[in-house]
């Protein structure tokens, strides 16, 4: 595995851990060399494609996940937003 990706994984985990803890998310990882995507943000049973993302973009993906999973209003607009956010997700 590339040293850059090893270091990036450490930085990502350090950046997202406080956010995950704040929302009681204990099952998370940043996987390098995933089955489908090279870089994957794994949150609970969801894998989010993060190939070539910056750490800020990965944090944004985490916040989008929190928004989609914790904010459960059922308006058409919210369903459309959730669908767009979930476009790059794979449920395991």
Short description:
The chain has 92 residues and is an alpha+beta fold. 50% of the residues lie in helices and 18% in strands. It has one domain (3-91).
List its traits.
4 strands; 92 residues; single chain; alpha+beta; 3 helices; four-stranded antiparallel β-sheet
Shape label? globular
Q: Which percent range fits the helix content?
A: 40-55%
Give the helix/strand class: alpha+beta
- Series of secondary-structure elements, N-terminal to C-terminal: HEEEHHE
Strand content: 15-25%
Report the sheet with the most strands, covering strand number, pairing sense and barrel closure. Answer: 4 strands, antiparallel
* Alpha plus pi helix count: 3
Terminal CA distance reads: 24 Å
Report on this structure.
The chain has helices at 3-22, 55-70, 76-85; strands at residues 28-32, 39-43, 46-49, 89-91. It is an alpha+beta fold. The chain has one domain (3-91). It has a 4-stranded antiparallel sheet with strand order 1-2-3-4. The mean pLDDT is 87.
């Amino acid at each position: 595995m590339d040293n850059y990706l090893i270091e990036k994984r450490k930085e990502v985990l350090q950046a997202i851990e406080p956010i995950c803890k704040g929302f009681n998310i204990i099952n998370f990882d940043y996987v390098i060399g995933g089955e489908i995507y090279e870089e994957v943000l794994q949150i609970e049973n969801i894998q989010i494609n993060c190939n070539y993302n910056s750490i800020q973009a990965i944090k944004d993906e985490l916040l989008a996940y929190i928004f989609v999973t914790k904010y459960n209003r059922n308006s058409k607009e919210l369903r459309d937003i959730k669908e767009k956010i979930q476009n790059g997700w794979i449920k395991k």
